[in-house]
Amino acid sequence: MVRTVIALVVSILLTFSGLSGGEAQAERVCDPALRAELLEMMAEDQYEQSEDYTGPWDGPERTDRLREIIARYGWPTFRLVGRNGATAAWVIAQHSDHDPGFQQRALTLMRAAARVGQADRIELAYLTDRVAVNHGRPQVYGTQVTCIDDELGPAPLIDPENVDQRRASVGLGPLQEYLDSFPDGFCDPPPDEGEAGQ
């Protein structure tokens, strides 16, 4: 069984680690209403990813709304929606696997924003890898992992010998540390339905 996933929580924690709630409130942004909307979209996305959620997945609707936002504003930058608003936009793009063409467009815009310091380089690395994997190409930074024969490892990589140098260039730690951060049993197969109630 092959299962491709992202350790989203790890990246979000890295993003928010330098921005406390008070600092986020004090951060000046051009469009606080848009930031609030993006944060609400991210909260919905995260709730729908939780084990407690049993309702319908609304990812396509969030993708459509982010597509509208991008058509109007371009990539939601730090200046426009603050760091947490930009992270929220990235989360929605990252989880738009059902629309690889949109993910590619988001990546192109986010890359341009990162060049001028208006998007997070670690988040950009995650989206770069996500788009590559979703298009059947090798990833660059090793952020996308897979389980093959119950063993955790990175999805196929470009130039694996130099992955840690590439990771360091965007602020990511060594690949092995990243893999070690996944919980024990992450690749264990799910229990059979007959065993679930026991």
Textual characterization of the structure:
The structure is a single chain. The protein is mainly alpha-helical and 198 residues long. Helices cover 57% and strands 6% of the residues. The chain has 10 helices and 3 strands. Strands 1-2-3 form a 3-stranded antiparallel sheet, with no helix packed on it. A hairpin with a 2-residue loop joins strand 2 and strand 3. Helix 5 runs parallel beside helix 7 and helix 6 runs antiparallel to helix 7. The longest helix is centred in the N-terminal third of the chain and has 18 residues, at 32-49. The radius of gyration is 17 Å and the shape is globular.
Count of alpha and pi helical runs: 10
- What integer value in Å does the Rg equal? 17 Å
What distance lies between the first and last C-alpha atoms, to the nearest angstrom?
24 Å
Q: Name the beta content range.
A: 5-15%
The whole-number mean of residue pLDDT values reads 87
Shape descriptor reads globular
How many distinct beta strands? 3
Listing every helix as H and every strand as E from the N terminus to the C terminus, the arrangement reads: EHHHHHHHEEHHH
Q: Describe the biggest sheet? A: 3 strands, antiparallel
Give the fraction of residues assigned to helices.
Answer: 55-70%
Stretches where pLDDT is under 50 for at least 5 consecutive residues are 1-23
* Strand arrangement in the largest pleated sheet: 1-2-3
Label the structural class: mainly alpha
